[in-house]
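Researcher: Here's the sequence for the chain we discussed earlier.
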Amino acid sequence: MNRQKQPLFIILLISVIALLISFTPHSAMAQRVRLSDAVTLKNGSIIRGSFVELNDSSKVGIETPCRSLWVFNKDEVESVNFNLPSSGSYRMGKPVTARASGYANITETGLLFGSGNNEKNTVFSVLMTNGYKFRNRFIAGFGLGLEFFEQAQLPLFAEARYVLSNQNIAPVLILKGGYSFMLEDPRDDSWYKYDGKGGYLCEAGLGVHFRLNQHNLLSVGLLYRYQDNTIVHTDTWYQDRVWVTKKYNRLAFRIGIAFD
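Model: Thanks. This is the structure I predict for it:
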């Protein structure tokens, strides 16, 4: 059995819990995020409050400050106006525009493909990034994940994205950089003991954001990934140490869901 690095597993557990706690309030607010939206009816009436997404796509809902929920058929509605300087309003039947800025969460899974002097040519990867979306379509944040090279690893990284347009299907530039910690050591043999240290990572490429609704999108990406892993070889007899670094060059395909 490989020797697990217990402190790193504890770090992983604490980090995942912290990320889930930070994500939960925003998920709970996903249905009501406006404080002063307005529904304008065709008869000239204006109802102000918080826009509510309904399961029935033929209806529009708005919750007033006194907690009353008003529901209208779409054919009664002239327009819905959001309290967003850059988003303005939309006419019924047109795509919903995303928020201009605010908290962003990106959770992705995927595979790293490649070949070389390594035992694993296909690596499973899952990553989560928490950050902030700025009004200029720039997204920045920090993330962590779990990946399986020869040994399980915990990548910690900074991520930056730049969305190239305001369209519902938009190309995006993606850049990640950080350090990946090995969560377990390679198996010892009769001659050496092995201590996995991990190494630096860098990932860059292109993606596409598919807008699903006002708060969520589907993210698909194809990126180049560089990763190095250092393992210390300790001679069991002489106690001599040798540091050996493996280098990985992979093509990363990722798909996930983002909240922004």
